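User: Run a structure prediction on this.
Assistant: Running it now.
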Amino acid sequence: MDDSSGPDQRKRLGVLWRLSALLKPHRARFALAFSTLFAASLLSLVYPWAAREAVDAGISGGSSDRLDRVVGFIMIVFVINAGLVWVRHYSMSWLGERVVADLRAMVFDRILALPLSWFHERRTGELVGRLASDVTVVEGVVGSELSMALRNAIQLVGGLVLLFVTDARLTGLMLTVVPPLVLATMYFGRAIRRMSKGMQDELAKVSGHVQESLGAIQTVQAFVRERKEAERYRAGVEAAFQRALSLARWRSSFFSAATVAGYLAIAAVAWLGGRALIHGDISAGELTSFFIYTFIVAGSLAELASLWGSLQRAAGATERLFAIIDTVPDIRDPAHPRPLPPGGGAIRFEHVDFAYPSRAEHPVLRGFDLEVAPGEVVALVGPSGAGKTTVLQLLLRFFDVDRGTVTIEGVDVRQLRLAELRRISAMVAQEPVLFAGTLSENIAYGRDDAAAEDVERVARLANAHDFIVAFPDGYATVIGERGVKLSGGQKQRIAIARALLVDPRILILDEATSNLDAGSEALVQEALARLMRGRTTLVVAHRLSTVRDADRIIVIDGGRVAERGRHAELMARGGIYKRLVEHQVISGDPEPPRADDEAVAGAEVN
């Protein structure tokens, strides 16, 4: 039923060992939890002894002093045990929550550091679902199931020892069912682990579908796809349900078999114990305690069998989480980074070849050369898919070139720290990404230390202050997910204010005005003019109004620089640029909405 092998099993145990390493910073808390757990588990083994003493005292017909002493002692044990259980439960719960919080942070930290190419191969919703569901499995194991496993292991060993002390012959009979039960535990545990992994995968897919559908709800409704999306969701839920049923059948079968085996042993013990009592080989109190110890051992064994499946599920979930944590980003800081020299934002692309990893057989740039002087405004134009946005992504090192170099201030971007490289740049995109916080928080997104007066200053420069103060809550207005409460022009002005606040050397404008009406475009263009002043600026545009005043226009065709010059020069030359204008690829009028030709790299060969 399972393809698990010895190496796979060792791998999963290694993963659980790595999970236990997360407890190391909290050794003192774990030591407290384990010591109280150990003491409470041992104290619970006193109860059968007390029952034996009470039964023998009652049957002997002697003084009640012995019974009084036993009851008084056991009451003290009850109180102590209750205190130990509270400390153990709280400490283990704290450890579970702490480890889960640390693990979530580790996974998310790694996800944020991974390159764009990694995300192009995965659905965001699936990652979110994985982060939620897998971490929840780990939380249950560390927070409660680990404690239960340790407690049951202690009670199992202690109960067996006391059973042998009471009557070795009866104990040997009771243990005849243990080896097959252990084998069944291993077999069912592996099958349960595999089925649990399949169920988690189905749930992750369902989460991914939900994220995708809700993220594009306007498109779903515009194309009247509500029923189809609902059917897809139901199909995913049904698939997860069927896997859950299969898992439940296996778990139920296992528990049923374990229960039958355990109680058959108890029945045999009752029969032999009764005969021993009749013949005077054992006292009534000893037989009573033997039965109670047998129930403790059987219960502990059954719990451990159940927890083995949980540990298998946790191993699978932890393995997937550590697979993310262990991913080494292709785009990362160099081993010996160079400091970025001072300057005004000099940029150079030299003999650059590049193809997206997902489409390596289709080069986007071929022998691309471009030099931008500090403070120069350069517009990149060309047909859709020519490679314009790819140039910007290579500059910010979202991808590395296959051949050639990209330098800033004469330093190869691959020799710079990523944070240092990206802090000197700011981007205003066609669809600016805003977060579901306040207007002030979105403007200050690139600078945590920004004062309120700095936020207001850049908002005024971006022509955003007037519409911001028109809201009842002003700068404290919550704008909703992706800024749904704002118009396109308002979003762009917030994005411009955000860029102004970080005061970048290099400004990147990627279709920043392509979807705006004339009134909004005028306000945005005025704000952009302030933003571009004195900065090196790369502009990707399809509208004449955006590029005609650029210091230079670079026409990209087939991944190479086909033409360069100012607007009038290129029009007079009668080449590709003029044809683009004539065919309204570059237009004075808004062009129809279109898919972003390169903003999602790898989705289209640029």
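Residues 226-278 form the longest helix (53 residues).
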